[in-house]
Structures are given as C-alpha cells and as structure tokens.
Amino acid sequence: MDYDILVKIFMSLNVMDLISVVSQVCSSWRSACCDPILWKKLDLCIQISDSCIYAPLQSDAWSYSVSNNNRLMNILKTTSNLSQGNVTRLIFNFFEYVEDEHLVYAAKRNRNLKRLALPIWSRLTVRGRRKAFKYWKGLESLTIPDFKSPMKLMKATGTNCKNFSELKLTCNLNLDYALLLKLDKTIIEKGSRLREFLACQTSCTICQSLKHYEFEKVRREDEEISLAL
What we know:
The protein is an alpha/beta fold. Helices cover 46% and strands 11% of the residues.
C-alpha cells in the first residue's frame, strides 16, 4: 500500500495501536509509523495499567508495582524510537505513576517538547523535574497536579525554558498560598514571563463536586482545546 495512504490511515489510531500492533506488521508499515505527522502529540491517556483501574481518594492508597514502572518505561522507549524526536506535546495518563527516570528519559528523547501534562500523582522530585527541564528549552506550557516548592519550580523553568508562558494547576490553590506567591519577589521574577496561570481556589464548587476520574475528563478536554488553538 502507498506510504501516504498508510500514514493517513494510521492517523486515526491511538498510540497503543501504533506501538503494539501496527509497527510490528512489516517494515513498510513500521516506516510509515515513523512519519513525523503521527508524533506531534504523544497522548498516553489511552494506555491502561493495573494502577489505573480505579481512582482512590488519597495518593498513598495507590499500589505501586515494578511491572507498572517497567511497562511505562517500555512504552516511552518504543514511542521514542518511532517518533524520532518529533513529539511536541506529551500528555501522561492522569492516573499514572511517573517517576524521575520516566520524566528524564522522555526529556532526553523528546527535546522539542512545547506542552507537558503530568499525572495527578507521581513520585517526581524537584531534582528530577529540574534535570528534565534542562532538555526542554522550548517548553511553553506545563500542566501539573501540585505546586510543591514553587520557587524551585519557577527557577527551573525560568532558567531553562525561555519560551515558558503557561502554567496550569489541576489542584486547589487557596487564597493564602496565592498571596504568598505574590509576595515572594524571587517567584515573581522567575515567573514573570507567564502569559497564563490557571488554577482553582479551595472554594471552587466545580472541583469540589468532581471525582478524580471526572477531573481527568476536564483536564483532557482542556488539553484538546489548547491543542486546537
């Protein structure tokens, strides 16, 4: 079948179809799977794991497994081999456990990233995020589930991501914490290039009424709207 026709067909498939089935058929299909147009966005929301079957109310209710860790790394390695550095938008599964090794590997292999959406819970450290951001010089937008160590986060993005202009928080941001951010001159300096800072306050009735799996839908719809702009 003609290469361009294959690519057009493959555009209707999700990432798991591409890496686990289509790319394994034959050399011509694998070649078509490597076309840059298929890899502008790497959406990992479709992949299912044993840690994603339900959404507990607290992060410590999750059961971590080595198999999950290896599975996610294998997915990142396979998609990196096929995408060949063409990914500009990376969306992790909302309920995935992402560790430093996952984020840093993704950063090393996808250095042209412009938009990043992290899961609601992870084992990411400040050191891991800082190391990953060093590779993402062109990062423009970041969606994160928390705002721990805001000064260090702003320093990491401000130092390495010169085009950074949009920060989204998928968590409550109460008024007192917001005032602290305003009063901290260092944070203001590091975050001065932000075009948008989107977050919910504790009084947000929408977030209070949403369960985690519903929040994932809201985040996904927001990302789709952003990508369409």
